[in-house]
Amino acid sequence: MRILQLINRPQNRGAEIFTCQLSEHLKVLGKEVQVVAVYKGKATLPYEGEIISLNASSTYRFLDLKGWKKLAKIIKSFQPDVVQANAGDTLKYAVFSKFFFGWEAPILFRNASEVGRYLSSTFQKRYNKFLYSNVDHVASVSGASEKDLIGHFPFLTGKTEVIPIGIEKKENLPVKLRPTSAKHIVHVGGFSFEKNHKGLLRIFALLKKKEHHVHLHLVGDGPLKEQIEVEVKKMGLESYVSFYGFVNNPLSFIKAADVLVLPSIIEGLPGVILEAMFCKTPVVAYNVGGISEVVNDKTGILIEKNKEEEFSEAVVKSLSQANNSQINEAYNMVVSQFMNKEIALKFVNSYRKIVPEKE
């Protein structure tokens, strides 16, 4: 079986990293894989093969005949049994390339968020309806993501299933977080509005009133990073907040943390929570998207969105005394249900639903 994996660009974001990890596991299972990026990018992703770029321009993504044609040429050369579009603009390029240039491979879309949160106009709804009407199957990252998708596009009923994100089984030595006398709170995620860094700073300010010896570590990069750096200075928190940008070893930061926090306002199923559970680091998160499918009173602390005072109190509680029962329950859940080796088998079963495997 041949699978063409379409990603937005080589960037250190969950969708692209997971797609490349999945691709490596698919190759171990004997599948042929080609990864294609819509846009150029500089990141080194966990994929040992060549990543072909369409070199498309986001300015013309709604009418990029040249890019659609280039993708069609790659597909006709590689002859995939399935084209998997993985978040971002990948679905646009897959659907329009197939529509205008007539290749036959079925399209599987990996739905990694809650698409309804981004449909703010009639045009967007109609446009996305056209895209999804040309999809053969959808793999949603969580039950919440699947429910949201079917709620907006009921015609997808019977063409979707839930396949969660997975993580890699690897050992990471913790980094040395400073100051050594502080309790360490870690957040890992791109600086985008979905991750709610401003809300996180407000929570941290509340937390400091209750627990003085704490330090916040922000791991990740993104378009809002400079804005958040300015906000930290405005709030007088420079001595208590550290920025690291992108790091190759986020699990090492998570493992060194006393607690991982995720006050996102939009999520599908964030891999960073699973990584924290694998590292046996306590988790405090907002109840958005599919987070409640992995974080509950047995595995972590779940707070309703925008309850910043409650969030800060939950972090204090976690810092004062780690709940070993929750930590062990969360670890066992991840090891048994969310490792990429097993997730890859779920994707293979999905491919077989829309195309018979060639012998």
UniProtKB/TrEMBL annotation:
Domain annotation Glycosyl transferase family: ranges: 170-322
A Pfam cross-reference name: Glycos_transf_1
Gene3D superfamilies membership: Glycogen Phosphorylase B
Domain called Glycosyltransferase subfamily 4-like N-terminal: residue spans: 14-168
Protein name, as recorded: Glycosyltransferase
